[in-house]
Amino acid sequence: MKKLRPVFLSATGLLAALALGVHTPATGEDGIPDTELGLSQSSVFDTPEPEAYAYDGSASDIQLLSSDQAPVIPHEVRDYERITTGRNRCLRCHMEPDLIGTEIPAGEATPMPADHYLQLASDGGDAQIDGARWVCTQCHVGQANIAPLVGNSSVE
Questions:
Q1: Helix residue spans in the chain (DSSP H)
Q2: How many angstroms separate the CA atoms of 62 and 64, rounded?
Q3: Which among 70, 115, 129, 131 could bridge 139 via Cys, Cβ 3.0 to 4.6 Å?
Q4: Which residue has the higher pLDDT, 10 or 148?
């Protein structure tokens, strides 16, 4: 019969000592209250819900923070059908490539700009939308009259 190595016995003894002798309670007097585990001063078990906003129906322009920022959507979209690979309700009103560059009367739908298309009808054939621009809400957000969560002092 072979002798057991001292290293194996030392490791086994250490594991046994840890398993039997060391105990740190997760709750109780020695534990950390769940309200002190993060930056939020609420319980980690609470599910915070943002305050609901009501769209006021105004189509007033919200100041854009940079020239590259996508404009906000000036109408309610919460009840629109979900955008899928074969369906996008936004296109019903905004896919008007013939109106690009023309003056649009107030209250009328703004046509998508030329950079949202792979090919315009004026180039021959049907207008084709760039797949990267298909999901409008990945860049455009609904307009809401709410205070900013974080102040912004950037200047372009």
A1: 6-21, 91-94
A2: 6
A3: 70
A4: 148
